[in-house]
Amino acid sequence: MKTIHLLTIWLALLAASTSCKTSKNINIDPSVLTSGKWQLDYVSGVKADAASYVKGLPLMNFTTEGKLWGTTGCNSFNGDYTLSESKISLNPGAMSKMMCPGSSERDFITGMKNAASAKINDNVLTISDSAGEEIFKFIKVQVEK
After folding, report:
1. Whole-prediction pTM
2. Phi and psi of 132, rounded to 5°?
3. Separation of CA 15 from chain center
């Protein structure tokens, strides 16, 4: 009887851990990703400070054709991205060459290059590295007309 009870507990724990793992790998709906601009809100879990960027907080825009464009908070970029389920790869591509003080732009570009996975919940885009550590959180912002 004790063996059956332990087996039941073990199976319950196994089911709980499996369900937690699958909830992290939610596929991104590309139409949500491409339907607006995404403004940087957090970097490595710390609220992004607009004063650290020459031209305000970085923005990213995703197209349905796999193109990526935006600003680093200093320079503009025009590159591409790939998305497969919850996996993402960001390539900033061509960039303008304005001199940018501090390390904010360099850190942003490095974070883009380290992107490995993404999820979207309630208009918040979270991008993580290959170890699952959060790099960025972006919020969807209104597109000016």
Report:
1. 0.79
2. 85, 5
3. 28
DSSP states of 60-128 as a string?
Answer: EEE-TTSEEEEE-SSSEEEEEEEEETTEEEEEEEEE------SSHHHHHHHHHHH--EEEEETTEEEEE
* Residue 16, token pair as written in the block: 């709980």
Model confidence over 46-96: pLDDT tens digits?
A: 999 999 999 999 999 999 999 999 999 999 999 999 999 899 999 999 999
Q: 6 phi and psi, to 5 degrees?
A: -65, -40
CA of residue 5 relative to chain centroid, distance: 43
Cα separation, 95 vs 88, in Å, equals: 20
For 4-40, how does the pLDDT look when each residue is reduced to its tens digit (9 = 90+)? 544 444 444 444 443 333 334 468 888 899 999 999 9
Tokens of 2: 């004790």
Element at 41 (helix H, strand E): strand 37-43
What tokens were used for 76?
């503009």
Give the bridge partners for 139, in sequence order.
39, 124
